[in-house]
Amino acid sequence: MSPDPVEGRVIHVYGTLDPQAPVPAWPAGIADTPVSTVTEEGTVAITGELPRDEFDPAEWERHADDAAWLGAVAMGHHRVLQAAVAVGDVVPFRLPSLYGDLEALRRVLRGHAREITEAMDRIRGRIEWAVKLYRVSEPVAAEPASTGADYLRARSRQARVKTEAEAQQGQRVRTAYDQLRQASDAAVLNTPQDSLLTERREPMLLNAAFLVSRGEQDRFGEQIGEVAQDVEAEGLLLEASGPWPAYNFTATVDAGSERA
Amino acid sequence: MNGPTTDARSGRADPVAAGGRSAAVLSSHGQPQSLADVLERVLDKGIVIVGDIQIRLLDIELLTIKLRLLIASVDKAKEMGINWWEADEFATVNGDKDGKPAELTQRVEALEEQLGDRQSKSRSRSKKEQA
Asked: What is the CATH number of the domain that holds A179?
């Protein structure tokens, strides 16, 4: 049981641990602060104390556009959850979740106990994998043209081929998603990220997350490999990452977790 | 710590390698989760339990963040020790290792213009919600 935060600090909650799971060795949290847990009626909250003057509402507002600040906070939050998911199940809280004192935190944990338990039940024994598909090439064959008329005909043929190829790629993306969804316990389709975010020239055509049993990871990995190979012939590149804390599968239903 | 597990990696990487893709693909598979992916998740996913200190971050535009990232990456990133994206990908795309700040600035300006619409819409929406 932690005491109240020291003067000038606020409590941040990263998420909650499965009460049955071991408590991991914590990395440094947001702003290099130590991480600990607070237990309230069977809910084990992962907490840390942050300097109030750096994390009060005015500071969040001031930094809302500040990628360096927000990026560092986001990575600190994620780092702790990633350590938790390495040893057991974790329900991530959306950033930020801040409390002025321990009683406020306990009150909120009690008030949301059912929601938290339900989220934990949904993801127990499972982790998240992310799969993206990028269009890396449009299979349009270049044709030699000897005359101007030939050239124009070739151009128009190429345009038609390109449209068909794009439609085929779109269909292939859908099939790839369906294949992986069937190999997983649950799936979420997210908006493809802008190339500004991905730092790649190739447009993203699929941005999906899959909930997979821990014991099924190898099999799911093989499935990903097969799909990757299949789609390559269609000019698509598959990228996978994981395991992630089950971020995409712990929100309440109306927040979109059941979209797929 | 952030990277995929060994088992999972071999599960994915081998078939991809067999498919004949270049080493770039494999390295991107083996890389830690990207900042874009982390932001997408921690700001937009997870269970929403609002603390007693309430902060409205609901309307943060990921693309705005990324814009700032592009700018921040040139000067601020290293001094802040945030260099997880700083691998080949970023350098290749933006050419910042060759010192082309003008090109980067141009790109950001063009993108800001494109985004102008979306952002102002999102701003006005957020104001309405607050009102």
From this structure: 3.30.70
